[in-house]
C-alpha cells in the first residue's frame, strides 16, 4: 500500500530524524537522489548529461538548497547549470557548492529567466516546498508560468510550487511538472487532484523517515492489495455463497443505466444478480443479461415499503436511472429500510439529498457521488468541492455516516477514522456517460460478496479504472488509447480481474 502524509506529519518526522544525524545529512541524501533522477532523465532525453542545459529555480526554503546541491552534482558531470535566485535569501552552502562545481547563479531578472528557461533541457523547480500554501507570490508566479512555456523537462523538488502538499489545492499559477521527486514519503497533495495533475509522475527518494512517520492521512491500494481483498471462489462455493446482489435501477425513461449497472455486477462475478424495476428496463436487462433474475415491481407493494417479491439479497445497489418521483422515493425508502449494505448512486443520491432521513439506518451505506452530487448532499458549491476534494470527502463521510466514494479525475474513498484512499487506475476516456453505472454494479457485487463498504468501494474503483484502461488499450504508457463506451468497461472486467 502506498501511504501519504500531510506537511505537518512530514516536518515532524524530519525533525525527529535530523536530531539523530549530523547537520546536513538529510539534505545531502535528498540532493543525491534528486541529482540521480535528473541525470537519468537527461540521459534519456538528451542522450547524455554532459553538455545538457539545466536551469534551477531557487526559492528561500530548504528545497532551494536541495536543488542547488543537486545542480552542483550535475555540474560536476558536465551539465551547464544556471540558477535563478528568486527568493529573499538563498541557501548559502548550496549556492557555494554550485559555484564551486562550475555552475552559475543570477539574481532574478524576468528577461534573463525567460531566456534561461527557453533554452533549458531540464528545469528544476526549487521555489516552494511543503510549507507553502495559498497562491504563489511574485516572482514565483511568473516563473511558474514561464516554466509552462519551456520545451524542456520540468522536475519539481519535493512538491510542485503552487501545490498545497497536504491537500492538493492549487490557488493560482503553479508549476506543472513532468516528474516530481519527493523525499521521505509521499505527500497527500501529490496524489489528489488538482495537485496530482501538476505533479506528473512521482518518484520517491528514501531518506530514512519511515520509522518516524505516524499513521497516514491518505493511502492508495496497489494491485497486490486489491488482489488480496477480492473474493475468489473455491470448491465449496455456490451462487449464494458468492453473494446475491439486488439492483433497483432504471426507469422507462432511463433504461441504459439498468443494463450497465447489472452488467458491472455480472462481469465482476456476483453469484446472482436480482434486478427490480419497471417493465421496460426489466425487458432490456433480460435481453442483455439473461443471468439476472428479474422482477417487475408492483407499485402498490413498493409504496408499502415492501420488496419481498424480489427475494433475499446480501446487498443492494440503488439509484442509477431510477428517477426522482414519488415511486422512486418509495423504492429508495424500501431498499434503505433493509438490514443489508446498500450502495446509493445517481438518482438515489438526489433522493437522499432531498430527504436525509433515508440515511438513518444501522447497516452499512456506500454513497458514490461526483462533485455535483456531493455539492447537493453537503450544500457546498461544486467548485469548492473540486478545489478541496480531500477536505470535502472527509466531511461527507463524517456528516452522512457513510462510506463516500467521490468520483472524478481523482477518485477518493472516505470513511470516518480511516485514511482516505486514492485510486490510481483509470483513464480520461472514462469521462463518458454510463461508466458510473458500471462502477455501482461492481461495488454492489463486492458488497454482496462480504467486503466492507470501505474495501468494496476502494477495490471497485481500482478494478473499474483497470477495466477502462484495458478497454481503451495503449498498454502501460496509455499511448494509442481509443475512446470507450460504458459497456466496453463492463465487458473488459474479466480481463482486468485476470491481471489481478
Automatic annotation (TrEMBL):
AMP binds at residues 407-411, 436. Its cofactor is K(+); Mg(2+). Binds 1 potassium ion per subunit. Keywords: ATP-binding, Isomerase, Kinase, Lyase, Metal-binding, Multifunctional enzyme, NAD, NADP, Nucleotide-binding, Potassium, Transferase. One of its GO terms (molecular function) is NAD(P)HX epimerase activity. Its EC number is 4.2.1.136, 5.1.99.6. InterPro entries: CARKD, Nnr, Ribokinase-like, YjeF_N_dom, YjeF_N_dom_sf. (6S)-NADPHX binds at residues 62-66, 129-135, 140, 158, 257, 321, 370, 437. GO terms for biological process: metabolite repair; nicotinamide nucleotide metabolic process. Pfam families: Carb_kinase, YjeF_N. Residues 222-500 form the YjeF C-terminal domain. Residues 10-215 form the YjeF N-terminal domain. It catalyses: (6S)-NADPHX + ADP = AMP + phosphate + NADPH + H(+); (6R)-NADPHX = (6S)-NADPHX; (6R)-NADHX = (6S)-NADHX; (6S)-NADHX + ADP = AMP + phosphate + NADH + H(+). It comes from the Bacteria. Belongs to the NnrE/AIBP family. In the N-terminal section; belongs to the NnrE/AIBP family. Homotetramer. This is Bifunctional NAD(P)H-hydrate repair enzyme.
Amino acid at each position: 500500500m502506498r501511504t501519504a502524509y500531510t506537511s505537518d506529519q512530514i516536518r515532524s518526522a524530519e525533525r525527529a530524524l535530523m536530531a539523530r544525524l549530523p547537520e546536513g545529512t538529510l539534505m545531502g541524501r535528498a540532493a543525491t537522489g534528486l541529482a540521480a533522477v535528473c541525470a537519468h532523465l537527461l540521459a534519456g532525453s538528451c542522450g547524455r548529461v554532459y553538455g545538457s542545459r539545466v536551469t534551477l529555480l531557487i526559492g528561500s526554503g530548504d528545497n532551494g538548497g536541495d536543488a542547488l546541491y543537486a545542480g552542483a552534482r550535475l555540474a560536476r558531470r558536465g551539465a551547464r547549470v544556471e540558477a535563478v535566485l528568486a527568493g529573499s535569501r538563498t541557501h548559502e552552502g548550496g549556492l557555494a557548492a554550485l559555484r564551486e562545481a562550475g555552475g552559475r547563479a543570477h539574481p532574478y531578472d524576468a528577461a534573463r529567466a525567460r531566456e534561461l528557461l527557453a533554452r533549458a533541457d531540464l528545469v528544476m523547480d526549487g521555489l516552494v516546498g511543503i510549507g507553502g500554501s495559498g497562491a504563489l507570490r511574485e516572482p514565483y508566479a511568473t516563473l511558474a508560468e514561464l516554466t509552462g512555456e519551456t520545451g524542456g523537462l520540468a522536475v519539481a523538488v519535493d512538491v510542485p510550487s503552487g501545490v498545497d502538499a497536504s491537500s492538493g489545492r492549487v490557488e493560482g499559477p503553479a508549476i506543472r511538472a513532468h516528474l516530481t521527486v519527493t523525499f521521505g514519503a509521499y505527500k497527500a497533495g501529490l496524489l489528489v487532484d488538482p495537485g496530482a495533475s501538476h505533479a506528473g509522475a512521482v518518484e520517491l527518494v528514501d531518506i530514512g523517515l519511515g520509522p518516524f512517520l505516524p499513521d497516514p492521512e491518505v493511502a492508495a491500494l496497489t494491485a497486490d492489495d486489491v488482489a488480496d481483498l477480492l473474493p475468489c471462489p473455491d470448491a465449496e462455493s455456490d451462487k449464494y455463497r458468492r453473494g446475491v446482489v439486488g439492483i433497483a435501477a432504471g426507469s422507462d425513461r432511463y433504461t441504459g443505466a439498468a443494463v450497465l449497472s447489472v452488467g458491472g455486477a455480472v462481469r465482476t462475478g456476483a453469484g446472482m444478480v436480482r434486478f427490480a424495476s419497471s417493465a421496460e428496463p426489466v425487458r432490456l436487462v433480460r435481453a442483455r443479461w439473461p443471468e439476472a433474475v428479474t422482477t417487475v415491481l408492483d407499485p402498490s407493494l413498493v409504496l408499502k415499503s415492501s420488496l419481498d417479491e424480489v427475494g433475499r439479497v446480501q446487498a443492494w445497489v440503488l439509484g442509477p436511472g431510477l428517477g426522482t418521483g414519488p415511486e422512486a422515493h418509495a423504492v429508495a425508502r424500501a431498499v434503505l429500510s433493509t438490514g443489508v449494505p446498500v450502495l446509493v448512486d445517481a438518482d438515489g443520491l438526489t433522493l437522499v439529498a432531498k430527504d436525509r432521513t433515508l440515511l438513518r439506518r444501522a447497516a452499512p451505506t456506500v454513497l458514490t457521488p461526483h462533485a455535483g452530487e456531493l455539492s447537493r448532499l453537503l450544500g457546498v458549491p461544486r467548485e469548492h468541492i473540486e478545489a478541496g476534494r480531500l477536505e470535502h470527502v472527509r466531511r461527507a463521510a463524517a456528516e452522512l455516516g457513510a462510506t463516500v466514494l467521490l468520483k472524478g479525475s481523482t477518485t477518493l474513498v472516505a470513511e470516518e477514522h480511516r485514511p482516505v484512499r486514492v485510486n490510481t487506475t483509470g483513464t480520461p476516456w472514462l469521462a463518458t456517460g454510463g461508466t458510473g453505472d458500471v462502477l455501482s454494479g461492481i461495488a454492489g457485487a463486492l458488497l454482496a460478496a462480504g467486503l466492507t463498504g470501505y474495501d468494496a468501494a476502494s477495490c471497485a474503483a481500482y478494478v473499474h479504472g483497470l477495466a477502462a484502461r484495458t478497454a481503451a488499450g495503449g498498454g502501460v504508457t496509455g499511448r494509442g488509447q481509443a475512446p470507450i463506451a460504458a459497456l466496453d468497461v463492463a465487458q473488459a472486467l474479466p480481463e482486468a480481474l485476470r491481471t489481478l
